[in-house]
Amino acid sequence: MTTGNLLTDNPELYEARFPDPDRLAGRWAEDCLRRHGAGPRVLDMGCGTGRDAAHLHGAGRTVTGADLSEAMLAHARARHPGPAYVRADLHGFDLGRAAFDAVVCLDSSLLYCHTDDQLDGFLASCHHALAPGGLLVAEMRNGAYFLGRTDLLDTPTVNAFTWQGTAYRSTTTLTVDRTAQLLRRTRVWTSDDGLPASEQRSAWRLLFPLELRHVLAVHGFEVLELHDGPGPRTEPPWQEGELPGRVTDADRLHLVARLRTTL
């Protein structure tokens, strides 16, 4: 068995496994930006294949997509042109002081900040990057969901799909590391093209709503919205015109926070 990240190393395969033909995530982010009057300059941190950054660009915004994966960035430049794409680490980045009116961080990218130092580095970088009154919009898993709930844990889930004539099968298992406050994921890939199985290990920080409110306040942000849906990955998914909910009980968490103009 080989170890690697089959999806991030193969962006086309990533988009085949996680199709978003209606650009639901990008539309949800644009709705948040529009409702709260964000300016046009947007940083999509953890932009991946560039689909959401390109949608925001198409909505008339000046967008920079940032990611750590060179493969993802190359795919984004070729397949989703319009935004500027740069390599940057969300744990700490400097793309200019007050260079953006909003930072968007979708699909649990924020939760790759596994430690408090990494989370502080991300939020301090956002503070530096945002103009006064700028927005942070994020969508992620909800740590509070896993308090006493085990329905998503320990039992492998299987997904199968075909891409370019090859059948792929992924077996994914989630476990909670309570000491590190991480949701750990092990995903084993197999395919019918004769290649050896590939194992991918990753983890997300389990952040709780009150914890998130506190750390945002420490870094100068005021929370405008914090809720479990509707959103682009909820069931049922967000639809145009739907307003945010008021509770944080389900498995996704949606955040809109504004950088305070004075501390």
Automatic annotation (TrEMBL):
Domain Methyltransferase intervals: 42-134
Top-rank taxon: Bacteria
Pfam families: Methyltransf_25
Gene3D superfamilies referenced in this protein's UniProt entry, alphabetically: CAC2371-like domains (2.20.130.10), Vaccinia Virus protein VP39 (3.40.50.150)
Coiled-coil segments on the chain, per record: none
GO molecular function, one term: methyltransferase activity
Protein name from the UniProt record: Methyltransferase domain-containing protein
Organism: Streptomyces capitiformicae
